[in-house]
Predict the structure of Ferric uptake regulation protein.
Amino acid sequence: MTLHHDIARKLAEAGIPLTSQRLLIACELFAEHCHLSADELLLRVGSLTPDISRATVYNTLKLFSQKGLVQELVVDNGKRVYDSNTAPHPHCYNADTGELTDVHQPLQLAGPLPELPPGTALERVDIIVRVRNVA
Amino acid sequence: MTLHHDIARKLAEAGIPLTSQRLLIACELFAEHCHLSADELLLRVGSLTPDISRATVYNTLKLFSQKGLVQELVVDNGKRVYDSNTAPHPHCYNADTGELTDVHQPLQLAGPLPELPPGTALERVDIIVRVRNVA
DNA sequence: CTTCCGGTTTAGACTGTGTCTAAAAACTGA
DNA sequence: TCAGTTTTTAGACACAGTCTAAACCGGAAG
Ligand SMILES: [Mn+2]
Ligand SMILES: [Mn+2]
Ligand SMILES: [Zn+2]
Ligand SMILES: [Zn+2]
């Protein structure tokens, strides 16, 4: 029924026990498709009652990404962002503003994937279109 | 003639005045195709005489990448690496070991680039094949 | 109800990467 | 030689992320 019920089911399906902190964090992540860093998320949930510790935000985001609920992206300047859309899709990064947006047009690779190094398996292919503001 | 002369010319063509520190750093970068972080490079030149300060390594790498002599990459875990190969080419990243290698097979995108956000111009398209060690 | 016990959260110290500042040093040209 | 500019430098600083050890919580057992 409610958004909270949807989220509770989502966590249960991923085998993640429900806690109030996880519910709050998931609520913020899944309300809309977004690209949030840990500290941005901390700021958002921090404006709610009661506060959630920084360590919990970091731990929870790592847990969610390990369980496949969000996608961890590193695009620039050493700040990880978490993408609530786990489907593979390319991104557009503005190197001047730091803004990260989705590319909805599905950029595909031409031809087959390269042979991977021995002993490794494909995780995913990241495609990032880097742009700059025109003068 | 010598490698040092090649490098001196390369810097001159890029409009970068030559200094002993820049020569040493460039020498380490361009001797072979490599992906080095600032601190890895600092370690390498630090084993030579006389030491170069950390600030100079950071400043020089930023200068080189602004002038197009190297390519700055951010692939994971908030550590920048500098690629002495400035041609666009895809990379393979092992998320378990942190190893970053070149993909020599030229992965191309199928179809046209997406429409860029208004007021922006394309810088480049990064393609990163992420792999993991098999169990 | 009380006790126990595993998983969870928490504050705060700590690490590593990168930036900034102000002074020293090294060039440059007159 | 001397002034002006660029470059280098040490060290302080900012920030993202990790780690640790203790507090907390909720359910099961007694
Ligand atoms: Mn996305
Ligand atoms: Mn490369
Ligand atoms: Zn909610
Ligand atoms: Zn050399």
